[in-house]
Amino acid sequence: xxxxxxxxxxxxxxxxxxxxxxxxxxxxxxxxxxxxxxxxxxxxxxxxxxxxxxxxxxxxxxxxxxxxxxxxxxxxxxxxxxxxxxxxxxxxxxxxxxxxxxxxxxxxxxxxxxxxxxxxxxxxxxxxxxxxxxxxxxxxxxxxxxxxxxxxxxxxxxxxxxxxxxxxxxxxxxxxxxxxxxxxxxxxxxxxxxxxxxxxxxxxxxxxxxxxxxxxxxxxxxxxxxxxxxxxxxxxxxxxxxxxxxxxxxxxxxxxxxxxxxxxxxxxxxxxxxxxxxxxxxxxxxxxxxxxxxxxxxxxxxxxxxxxxxxxxxxxxxxxxxxxxxxxxxxxxxxxxxxxxxxxxxxxxxxxxxxxxxxxxxxxxxxxxxxxxxxxxxxxxxxxxxxxxxxxxxxxxxxxxxxxxxxxxxxxxxxxxxxxxxxxxxxxxxxxxxxxxxxxx
Length: 441
Known about the structure:
Strand order of the largest sheet: 1-4-5-6
Number of helices: 9
Radius of gyration: 41 Å
Strand content: 5-15%
Largest sheet: 4 strands, antiparallel
Low-confidence stretches: 1-26, 246-251
Number of strands: 6
Distance between the termini: 70 Å
């Protein structure tokens, strides 16, 4: 009976374990697009940029609302020390006094309605200023998005690079372990000196130390990547190698440098933001100048007082108000001139940024060309290094070559693999920077 109970208990535990394995979600590799989406939703720079854009949109609504009628209401209660009186002097009659109010308290209320009819472009200039400012902040938000995506892509590539370097280091350790086994076999047979055994042991220890250092760099790269995505540093990181060898949706950028520069000038949000800033300053200057021109508004008001010595305590009024600031000592002119100076500053800054962007495009384009050639060279060198190691090991086993030749060949193979890894991921990084440079990230 007891064996049967133990058997049923074992079956139950096994079934529970199998069910948990089936229900456990399968970890999938994370793509760069998924990482971008998470980072943009988390990053506080992005949130601040969005709030700045929202604030600018509120200012645009405020500027547009100036065209709407304005209705104001007010009420007042006054207490006098005594009831006001008026002196009345009539010929042949003694001087008399008559109260102006019923008593020493006064309550009054008033409502005023005004609507601008013609402002010589002051209101429209303010609206244009706010609208250009909104567009400027929208481009700043686009710039922030591009910068965050570039930073995440660099961290993404750094993790992939570190993983590949760990694989190279492990391959180096595995190859040295295999060689150590061969050396020990030959040492047992008395075919090699004890110095070869010691040398391969030292080389293996050094390779193990290098592996630990590279694994630490991988852990740091994963932590840096997790920080950008708002995750705990120790969160597992499994990344998918970018399909096609480059990031982003769409086709490869054009290979012609001139076409790349033209595309960058047309698409980079920095240039668009500065253009909108210049437009905002120009519109502000126009709005300020309009302050010195005729301003026409319609008005209507209602006034009520419980102590007014009239037949009707309610007074209605409607009319037109014309204002024209004929002379102000040059205040408006100088204020408008200051905005014009700011517009010129923005235009000068745009020309400087344009030059920097063209340099960025050229540097990124040259880096892509260089990396493509490096990948091709490293692939050939890697094949030669593998063949060189195979020849060196065969010569050593046949007692034709030396132990130093094998270690040198293994070092060259590891160096070739490392160079190939760096060339490959430098190419990925150069392409992502090129897409950033032309504003297509």
